[in-house]
Amino acid sequence: MSLNLGKGVRWPALILSVAGAALAYLGVSLWAGADEVGRAVTRIGAQGLAAMLALSLVNYALRFVRWQLYLRVLGHAQPVAPSLCIYLAGFALTTTPGKAGEALRSVFLKSRGVPVAASMAAFFSERLSDLLAVVVLVVVGLGAFPGQWLLAAAGAGLVLALSAPLMLPVPWQRSLHGRLRQRLAPQSRSGRAVQALAGVLAQARACHTPLVLLAAFGLSLVAWAAEAWAFHLMLGWLDAAQGMPFSSLVYSAGVLAGAISFLPGGLGGTEATMVGLLLWAGQSQAPAVAATLLIRLTTLWFAVLIGAVALAVVLRGERQRGVAASHGACPA
Fold first, then answer.
1. Distance (Å, rounded) from C-alpha 253 to C-alpha 260?
2. Which of 52, 55, 176, 178 has fewest C-beta within 10 Å?
3. Closest CA to 71 of 126, 111, 133
4. Which burial class, exposed, middle or buried, applies to 110 when counting CB atoms under 10 A from its CB (0-12, 13-18, 19+)?
C-alpha cells in the first residue's frame, strides 16, 4: 500500500524517478571515467572530500535559514527542527525537472497550518533567489576575463529583469492581474491557473520587500559561493586551478545551464557545460570529466542522499501524527 499525504502525491513513482536518475547517473559516471574519478579521490584525500562536503552543508544550511525567513515574513513561522526535516526532505526530489519535486514541502507544511499558496510563494522566491545568485556568480567570473564585459553586462541585465516584476507597486500588479482575468474565462483551466499564480505572486511579494530581498540574496550568494569555493579547492588539489573567478564561472555556469535546460536535476546540461568550459580553458578531457563528476557527487547527490534520509524521518513522523489523531491524541 502506498502512502498518500496529498491528492496526486504518488510516493512510489516519485521514489522510482529518483532511483532511476541515480542509477542512470552512476552508469554514465562509470562509462565516462570511473578510473579518473577514483584517481581524483585519491589525490584529494579524505580531508579534501570532508572539506568539500562541509562546504555543501554550508550551502544547505544557509538556504534553510533563507527558507525560515520566507516563512516568517509570510506569517507562518515554523519550529526549527520539524521545519529543517521538511526542508531537507525536499532535496530527495531535487532530480525532478526544474527541481519541481522539492515543492512536496507544501504537502507536509499544509498539515501544519501553512496554506499551499504561502509555501509555494516561499518555494518560488527560493528558486528566483537561487537564480539571481548564480547569475551574479557567472557575471563575476565573466568580468575577470578580457573581452567578456558585454556578456557580464547582459547577465547583470538579466538579474534586474528577473527581480523587477515582483518589486512593482501593488497597483501595477493588480492591473496586470485584472487584464489577464479579462482575457481568460474564470472557469477555464488557464483561468484557474492564472488565479492560482496570482495568489502565489501576491504572497511572494512579502518575500521581496527591499530588506527581505537583500537578506535573502546575501544568504543565496554566500551559499552558492561556498559550493563554487569547494570546486575551486578541488581544482587546486588536481593541479587544474586557474583562479577563483574561473572556478566560479565554470561551476555557476554549469548550475545555470542545468536550471535552464529543465532536465531532472540539470543532469547532462550541467555536466556538459562544466566539462566544455574546462576543455576550453586548456584542461585535458580526463581530469575535466573527473572534476565535474566529483563536484556533482559532493553537491547534488550528497543533497539527494540527505534528502532521502530526511524524507524517511518526515514520513515516519506523519504516520505517527496520523495514528495519534485517529486515537484522539494531540499530535506533536
1. 10
2. 178
3. 126
4. middle
pLDDT digits 0-9 by tens, 221-259 = 999 999 999 999 999 999 888 889 999 999 999 998 888
- At 96-127, the pLDDT tens digits run 666 666 778 998 999 899 998 899 999 989 98
In the numeric block, which cell numbers belong to residue 265?
A: 536535476
Cell digits of residue 119: 509555501
Q: What is the mean pLDDT of residues 27-32?
A: 59
Kindly tell me if the per-residue pLDDT of 155 is higher than 70: no
The CA-based angle 138-282-231, given to 5 degrees, is: 45
Contact present, 315 and 93 (Cβ < 8 Å) = no
Residue 183 CB-density burial (10 A; 0-12 exposed, 13-18 middle, 19+ buried):
exposed
Strand-pair partners of 264? 97
Cα gap 19→45, rounded to integer Å: 28
DSSP 147-169: T-HHHHHHHHHHHHHHHTGGGS-
Of 169, 102, 162, residue with least CA distance to 134: 162
Render pLDDT for 259-283 as a digit per residue (tens, 0 to 9): 877 666 677 788 889 999 999 888 8
Spans of all domains in the chain: 47-74+115-262+296-304
Does residue 180 have a pLDDT over 60?
A: no
d(CA 291, CA 246): 14
Q: How long is the chain? A: 332
Q: At what angle do helices 244-261 and 116-143 cross, to 10 degrees?
A: 140
From CA 240, how far away is CA 222, in angstroms rounded? 23
Mean confidence (pLDDT) of the chain: 79
Please give the Cα distance from 312 to 319 (Å, whole number).
11
Closest CA to 115 of 216, 192, 203, 11: 203
